[in-house]
Task: inverse folding
């Protein structure tokens, strides 16, 4: 081959390399490595896009019954909490069940952000002689329906942050 044809071949090779580099795409999302036709993968992508933090890991535990599931989730959470070099925090059940004292702040916040009529009604039930009757009803009945916490005794998800 002549020198001129080698130059053209080299130029063509450089053009092809540049075109290839521009087509190259780096995808750092691990979920994109999974097959797109699986509904589970689509659900995980949707959940991650709308609800999770990139530094969060969700572990799901399954067992034959709710008591075994709860015991396994509690044990796993306790083990992971001891590994402070691996986790910043471990949440295995709703905060109001794990730390009930902190739930009072949330209830106070929700109460103060009610419409004025509901706020006044609840304040009226908690003043004077009404407080005894309101407390006798129990905490779940004293909150407006939309603020009654949903709880499940068969906790089976652990969030690691």
Result:
């Amino acid at each position: 081959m002549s020198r001129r044809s080698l130059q053209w071949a080299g130029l063509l090779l450089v053009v092809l390399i540049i075109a290839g580099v521009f087509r190259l795409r780096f995808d750092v999302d691990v979920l994109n490595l999974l097959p797109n036709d699986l509904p589970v993968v689509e659900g995980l992508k949707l959940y991650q896009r709308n609800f999770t933090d990139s530094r969060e890991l969700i572990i799901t535990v399954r067992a034959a019954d709710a008591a075994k599931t709860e015991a396994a989730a509690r044990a796993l959470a306790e083990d992971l909490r001891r590994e402070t070099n691996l986790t910043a925090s471990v949440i295995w059940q709703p905060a109001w069940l794990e730390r009930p004292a902190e739930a009072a702040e949330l209830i106070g916040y929700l109460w103060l952000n009610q419409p004025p009529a509901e706020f006044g009604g609840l304040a009226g039930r908690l003043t004077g002689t009404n407080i005894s009757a309101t407390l006798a009803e129990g905490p779940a009945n004293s909150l407006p329906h939309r603020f009654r916490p949903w709880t499940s005794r068969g906790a089976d998800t652990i969030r690691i942050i």
Observations:
- The beta strands are 57-60, 90-91, 157-160.
- The CA atoms of residues 103 and 127 lie 21 Å apart.
